[in-house]
Amino acid sequence: QVQLVESGGGLVQAGGSLRLSCSASGRTSSTYIMSWFRQGPGKEREFVAAFPRNGGPYYGDVAKGRFTIARDNVKDTIYLQMNRLKPEDTALYYCAASEDGLLPVLSSYKYWGQGTQVTVSS
Q1: Residue 64 has what pLDDT?
Q2: pLDDT-derived band of residue 100, with 50, 70 and 90 as boundaries?
């Protein structure tokens, strides 16, 4: 089994920055793909970014140009640096992990964290 714990969320003014972290424990050899998703109020969960082990970053449209994903395989941790935040970025941000599958597809992910709340004020 794999456990995922997110941290780093909070309240920030529009234009500000936050850095989210997700730490994996357990059978982390199974976490070939680690990704970030988010779910805002009244919205469906959407893909933000992914980072396969021994691969490179892959971004959804919402992340391009403002967000950066990084992966530390030694620490079994991924990060999401979010810059120039907007009110529409307000959401619960989830960390997810999978052994294989299509990176932006929800059903590809076997393991999920509890989420960390990001709130961006005007």
Answers
A1: 87
A2: confident
